[in-house]
Amino acid sequence: MGYQLLFSDKALAQLRDLERDRGLTKRLKAVRKTLWYLESNSRHPGLRTHEYKSLVGPSGEKMFEAYAEQGTPAAYRIFWYYGREKGQITVVAITRHP
Predict the structure, then answer these.
(1) pLDDT at 62 over 70
(2) d(Cα 89, Cα 83) in Å, to the nearest integer?
(3) Is 49 in contact with 22 (CB distance < 8 Å)?
(4) pLDDT band at 1 (very low <50, low <70, confident <90, very high)
(5) What's the rounded Cα separation, in Å, for the pair 17 and 62?
(6) d(CA 37, CA 49)
(7) Measured between alpha carbons, how far apart are the two ends of the chain, in Å?
(8) Residue 73 has pLDDT above 90, yes or no
C-alpha cells in the first residue's frame, strides 16, 4: 500500500536545510531514499522502523523512527506517525540521531 507523505513545518525546514547544504549531498540522497520507502512501503526492512516511545503525535498517535543512515556518526533519522487520514504518513522531523 502506498502512502501520501505530509510534512510538519519543522520537517520541511529540515529537508530544505539539507537541500541547501552542498556538503550534505550524500545524506540528502539517503533521506530522499528513506522518504521514498516510507511512501511506497512503510514496513520495508531497510527502514529499520520502530516505535519511538518517548514521543507521541499531536493526538496521541504512536511515533515511529526510520533510519536514513546507519553506522555513520550523527546518522540521520526520520520521525513520523500514521497520518490524519487513512493512507497518510506525517513526517515530524528529519534530523541527526538524538
Answers:
(1) yes
(2) 4
(3) no
(4) low
(5) 26
(6) 11
(7) 30
(8) no
CB < 8 Å & 24+ apart, contacts of 43-48:
none
Q: Count Cβ atoms within 10 A of the Cβ of residue 83 and give its class: 0-12 exposed, 13-18 middle, 19 or more buried.
A: middle
3-state secondary structure the chain: CCCEEEECHHHHHHHHHHHHCHHHHHHHHHHHHHHHHHHHCCCCHHHCCEEEEEEECCCCCEEEEEECCCCCCCCEEEEEEECCCCCEEEEEEEEECC
Cell of 52: 519511538
State which amino acid sits at residue 45: P
Per-residue pLDDT reduced to its tens digit, 15-29: 999 999 998 899 999
pTM (two decimals): 0.90
